[in-house]
Amino acid sequence: MLEVRFHGRGGQGAVLASELLAHAAFLDGKWPQSFPFFGVERRGAPVTAYVRIDDRPIALRTSITVPDVVVVLETGLLRTVPVTDGLREGGLLLVNSALPPELIEVPIPVRTATVDATGIARARGLGSPTMPIVNTAMLGALARATGVVSLDAVRGSIVHVPAKPRENREAAADGFAAVRSGEGRHLPVARRAERAPPLPEGPIAAVPSSTLVTSSWRTLRPVIRLEKCTRCNFCWKYCPDDAIELDPSGFPVIREAHCKGCGICAAECPPKTIEMVLDAGARGGWGVR
Amino acid sequence: MAKLTIPAEEYMYPGHAACPGCGAALAMRLLLKGLGPRTIVSMPACCWTVIATPYPTTALATGLLDHPIEATGASISGLRAAADAMGLKDLEIVGFAGDGGTADIGLQSLSGMLERRTDAIYVMYDNEAYMNTGIQRSGSTPAGAWTTTTPVAGASHGKPEPKKDVMGIVRAHHPVYAATLNPSFPEDFLRKVERARGLHGPRFLHVFSPCPPGWKYSSERTIELGRLATDSGIFPLYEVGEDGVLSITRRGGALKPVAEYFRAQGRFAHLTEAEIAAIQAAARANWERLLRLATPPPA
Ligand SMILES: Cc1ncc(C[n+]2csc(CCOP(=O)(O)OP(=O)(O)O)c2C)c(N)n1
Ligand code: SF4
Ligand code: SF4
Ligand code: SF4
Ligand SMILES: [Mg+2]
User: Is the CB of residue A235 below 6 angstroms from any atom belonging to ligand 3?
Assistant: First the structure.
């Protein structure tokens, strides 16, 4: 039996990826199983999904704690979610990244593969600029890197996707062609999400949520060209995350730790002086700062 | 530098767990600007309980009480009784519930609170479905909308029934201050919150709350969609005083066609021209009904 754990962010298609992989395995004549972890599935928030594949029916119904393969749909998760926890010796870590495997920082020595699924999804027009849908490119890469399913089966499974089945099948083939395998860069003391402190006495939750970081949910971030800013404060007024403050002279300043990249400030700025640009890297996780 | 048109103070913290572009998050931020820190927000199960409480944190600088989904009205009645018993005179007691928790599951509790004349503000943030559990239809889901329980497949073509008129139900408990609010119009929003705050007895605020994943649109369009909803007569802005006088608080000339609002959302993508024309007629009839009720009648 082979066990695969997907880590993604809400909206990237991790759950659908797990279903498609199971379907592909079925098309290859295997007995698959897929199911998501039940949690907060906010767009941008970390999500987990599981797949088991075997040559005979699978009776096991538990979540996967000792996976053979871990698929990470976004590099930022490596820093904030303990994705390699329980990864079996000789297992594989597949990461969506434009970097070669040797530049991926991993907390245990592990066979690592990378593919620029975000680049592929953008090129194929999958998802929105704020949330490219990378799952099918990742599945193509997974087929090549593990051999657990054939590319034909992956492409065959891509019929019940919500949109653009043809482009998704092409993305799978692109992922298959582009995946690179190697060894990750082993950093024994990895940065990880800290455990929540013990239950306080008195009020259950007395710590402000501003101690959390939510900017890792975003793929785009706002950049303000202050030369054209009229200090109208519309961007401040409409931000649902209170992620913009006004400096003493009334100019807006983005709180980089909290902005989720929704794009509202850019859309509502009258002189259009806010531009949403690709966020080069996640700035820490949705964990305690 | 432009003057601030709404209070500078913030009582909602960033770092909360709402989706990017969540209208309900902006609604809470604006609401608390108007209510201030001496507030207890009582919340049933809904998106906002998840938004507010990524353990071990809270997104509110005010008090926050979590209660069962059907109990918002009862909870704020109890909180007010407790505050009175403790001699706490300066507290704002606020129920903050979703449309499912208000229009459906908590309707008896809302009615009880209004009829008992509880001195509290009840806020229904309306994202027009049970969002926290995965986009199931509610009584407040508009006709035609796709949800996971009103799919677009086979014989099913979105929700067949029209949206429940919760404002009408609330007004039947007169006297009560009741208003519709939309975060796309922050100044009007704050003026109504401040007016409600200055009153006693039951007060009801119906808040429009666009939801990018539930309505299927791209997150940067939340404010634009709110503007379109009001300016096309889908979500008119008005208030009813304790004297029963209804005033429309945003007129802005002729109504915009509803098509622009509907075409911007994936949940309505399947609607035909004829269906949109029928919605257009219903929106116009509703708007004309409000104009007739409004005092003074328009010139
Ligand atoms: C009696 C009861 N039934 C069902 C639920 C499950 N539940 C939790 S949140 C929720 C959705 C509530 O929808 P709404 O009030 O519209 O708020 P939203 O999530 O849309 O913000 C449901 C059904 C519950 N908590 N209690
Ligand atoms: S993109 Fe703009 S509006 Fe959206 S969270 Fe960031 S600062 Fe706020
Ligand atoms: S909306 Fe645009 S012009 Fe207005 S304060 Fe913000 S950046 Fe400046
Ligand atoms: S599902 Fe909708 S209402 Fe709930 S947090 Fe997300 S955007 Fe807000
Ligand atoms: Mg709702």
Answer: yes
B10 touches chain A (CB under 8 A): yes
Rounded to the nearest angstrom, the distance between the alpha carbon of A122 and the centre of ligand 3 is: 29
Residues with CB under 5 Å of ion ligand 5 are B 98-100, 127, 131
Pairing, β A274-278 against β A220-224: antiparallel
Least CA distance to B55: which residue of chain A?
A205
Residues of B whose CB is below 8 A from A197: 56
Residues with Cβ within 8 Å of A60's Cβ and at least 6 positions away in sequence, in order, are A1, A33, A52
Q: Domain spanning B23-293 has what CATH number?
A: 3.40.50.970
CATH numbers and ranges of domains, chain A: 2-191 (3.40.920.10), 209-282 (3.30.70.20)
Amino acid at A222: P
- Which ligand 3 atom sits nearest the alpha carbon of residue A251? 5
**Spatial separation of the C-alpha atoms in residues B214 and B229, rounded to whole Å:** 16
CA distance B182 to B189: 6
Atom of ligand 2 nearest to the CA of A254: 7
Is A277 in CB contact (< 8 Å) with chain B? no
A-chain residue closest to B53, CA distance = A205
Residue nearest atom 6 in ligand 2 by C-alpha distance: A259
**pTM of the predicted model, to two decimals?**
0.83
- AA identity, residue A173: A
- The encoded tokens of residue A27 equal 């098309």
pLDDT tens for chain B, 299 residues long, are: 789 999 999 999 999 999 999 999 999 999 999 999 999 999 999 999 999 998 889 999 999 999 999 999 999 999 999 999 999 999 999 999 999 999 999 999 999 999 999 999 999 999 999 999 999 999 999 999 999 999 999 999 999 999 999 999 999 998 999 999 999 999 999 999 999 999 999 999 999 999 999 999 999 999 999 999 999 999 999 999 999 999 999 987 789 999 999 999 999 999 999 999 999 999 999 999 999 999 765 55
3-state secondary structure of B164: coil
